[in-house]
Design goal:
Layout (H helix, E strand, L loop, with lengths): L31 H6 L6 E3 L6 E3 L2 E2 L3 E2 L2 E3 L9 E2 L1 H17 L5 E3 L21 E5 L2 E3 L20 E4 L10 E5 L1 H12 L6 E5 L2 H13 L4 H10 E2 L8 E6 L3 H5 L10 H9 L26 H7 L5 H14 L11
Parallel strand pairs: 5-7, 12-13
Antiparallel strand pairs: 1-2, 3-6, 4-5, 8-14, 9-11, 10-11, 12-14
Helix pairs in contact: 2-3, 3-4
The structure holds zinc ion.
Zinc ion binds next to strand 8.
């Protein structure tokens, strides 16, 4: 983790032998209301999502109303652009006010200065974030499953927290909480400042969220936006969503590079801000390649490393192969 530029030696009083070294406290990351009041100029996202960096990255609060940074993740990987971090805080707060008691669990954003981050090809410019699905216990009560975990969901939206993979007695069945998950996605998509470009998510969760949107009579423009920005991932994305936001108009001028597609609404927003879009030359949907190859595990490798598993886990993983590479007819590949 890069050292904090704000940290400095405090010379204090020269007090001879009695001088005690008092470590300077870590500077507090901005609280939730502070995050929401930061100006757009706080952060600058530079370059392409798979090769760029981040200046003035804002730390996502470890906890805010309706939101929790995944406690199993490195807190040094929770920096993003002010637009993305504020967007997550606002959308999670909206869900919390409507259906309290089940916070969104947020995974990795970027390192403080962006750049390479373990386990991800992108996440380098502060414009990418992984969020877990809201889940419920899959029983008669259907209480929220809190805190959420990265649990792969099958085409019925069901999965299992296997806990100890070798022990069948500690398994907890869960299912997608489509209500809260849609509510979060809809709030984020409606947030013009956040400007969601893409959501990487498996087809069956996408369909379940579209069904939920119809059930609650969501505004047509938001439903269409969701259908448009959800792309076909190369990895399953059946246990989380990867969300990417566009460069802010200020950042475009500072060297932030968007990727295709550029939707008509995005062109209008940039034109209104008097900014010409900068599209990375390496952004063709199929041929954008990161400069250095990230070390990403294949499903087979992850499975081999997981150790002993009881037979239900093996059966689930066998079934998972069927949807991991399921085509999404007519949809663009995610890059
Ligand atoms: Zn991701």
């Amino acid at each position: 983790m890069p050292s904090d530029p704000a940290a400095h030696e405090d010379p204090g009083e020269a007090n001879g032998a009695a001088a005690e070294v008092i470590p300077e406290p870590e500077p507090e990351p901005p609280s939730e209301p502070e995050v929401l009041s930061l100006p757009a100029s706080t952060s600058t996202s530079i370059g392409h999502p798979t090769s760029g960096r981040l200046e003035g990255g804002v730390a996502l609060p470890l906890q805010a109303p309706g939101l929790l940074f995944n406690p199993s993740k490195d807190p040094g990987s929770r920096y993003g652009t002010v637009e993305l971090v504020a967007g997550l805080v606002r959308a999670a707060g909206t869900v919390e006010r409507a259906s309290p008691g089940a916070p969104l669990t947020v995974g990795d954003l970027a390192r403080e200065g962006g750049g390479e981050i373990s386990g991800h090809a992108s996440h380098r410019t502060g414009r990418d974030v992984d969020v877990l699905f809201h889940l419920r216990h899959d029983d008669a009560e259907g209480a929220p499953f809190v805190p959420s975990k990265a649990i792969p969901l099958d085409p019925d939206g069901r999965g299992t927290d296997y806990v100890d993979l070798a022990d069948p007695t500690d398994d907890v069945p869960v299912r997608l909480d489509a209500e809260r998950t849609w509510s979060f996605v809809a709030a984020l998509l409606a947030d013009e400042a956040a400007a969601v470009q893409r959501i990487f998510v498996v087809e069956h969760v996408r369909s379940a969220l579209l069904d939920e949107a119809r059930r609650v009579g969501a505004p047509q423009d938001i439903v269409e936006r969701f259908a448009e920005v959800t792309c076909q991932p190369r990895f399953p994305h059946d246990d989380h969503m990867h969300i990417r936001v566009f460069c802010s108009p200020e950042d475009v001028a500072a060297g932030c590079e968007d990727t295709q597609p550029l939707y008509p609404w995005r062109k209008q927003a940039l034109a209104a801000a008097g900014v010409k879009p900068v599209i990375s030359r390496r952004s063709g949907d199929e041929d954008a390649k990161p400069k250095s190859k990230p070390k990403l595990k294949t499903l087979a490798q992850a499975r081999a490393e997981a150790g002993p598993m009881h037979e239900d886990v093996v059966e689930f993983l066998d079934r998972r192969a069927a949807w991991a590479k399921q085509p999404h007819p007519g949809r663009r590949w995610c890059r």
